[in-house]
């Protein structure tokens, strides 16, 4: 199962402060909209997302090319989702599940 690119989506309190901090660590903005309270940063092959007011906690994020296939495969293994992708549509969609400790895992196809 190809889960796609991986990043950590951080729930931040202050987007500007978080951006400044991670830029000191060598990260650079490569996507996002500061006016919409989200930015994607990269340092080499490591990617993190900064999201202010969008998530209650940090999220493990995968960007697959086919979220619907992953969802079907995981459901066949008995995995439950808290938000399922709409399998009657094509294109951009997402699905979310929780690991055994309650950590959210987002499959975000765009």
Features:
110 residues, alpha/beta, 2,3-Dihydroxybiphenyl 1,2-Dioxygenase, domain 1, 7-stranded mixed sheet, 2 helices, 7 strands, elongated
Description of the structure:
The protein has a single domain, classed as 2,3-Dihydroxybiphenyl 1,2-Dioxygenase, domain 1 (Roll), CATH 3.10.180. It contains 2 helices and 7 strands; from the N terminus they run βαββββαββ. The chain has helices at residues 15-24, 67-76, and strands at residues 5-12, 28-33, 38-43, 46-52, 59-63, 93-98, 104-109. A 7-stranded mixed sheet has the order 2-3-4-1-5-7-6, with helices on one face. The longest helix is centred in the first third of the chain and has 10 residues, at 15-24. The mean pLDDT is 96.
Layout: helices, strands, pairs:
Blueprint: E1 5-12, H1 15-24, E2 28-33, E3 38-43, E4 46-52, E5 59-63, H2 67-76, E6 93-98, E7 104-109
Parallel strand pairs: 1-4, 5-7
Antiparallel strand pairs: 1-5, 2-3, 3-4, 6-7
**CATH domain fold name:** 2,3-Dihydroxybiphenyl 1,2-Dioxygenase, domain 1
H/I helix tally:
2
Element-level helix/strand string: EHEEEEHEE
Tell me the β content: 35-45%
**Morphology:** elongated
Task: Write down the Rg.
Answer: 15 Å
**Strand order across the largest sheet:** 2-3-4-1-5-7-6
Distance between the termini: 18 Å
Please identify the top-level CATH class. Alpha Beta
Main sheet summary: 7 strands, mixed
pLDDT < 50 stretches? none
CATH superfamily: 2,3-Dihydroxybiphenyl 1,2-Dioxygenase, domain 1
């Amino acid at each position: 199962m190809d889960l796609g690119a991986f990043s950590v989506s951080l729930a931040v309190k202050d987007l500007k402060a978080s951006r400044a901090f991670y830029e000191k660590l060598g990260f650079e903005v490569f996507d996002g909209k500061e006016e919409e309270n989200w930015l994607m940063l990269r340092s080499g092959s490591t990617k993190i997302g900064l999201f202010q007011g969008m998530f209650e906690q940090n999220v493990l994020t995968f960007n697959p090319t086919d979220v619907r296939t992953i969802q079907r495969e995981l459901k066949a293994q008995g995995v439950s989702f808290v938000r399922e992708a709409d399998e009657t549509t094509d294109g951009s969609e997402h699905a979310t599940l929780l690991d055994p400790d309650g950590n959210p895992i987002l499959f975000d196809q765009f």
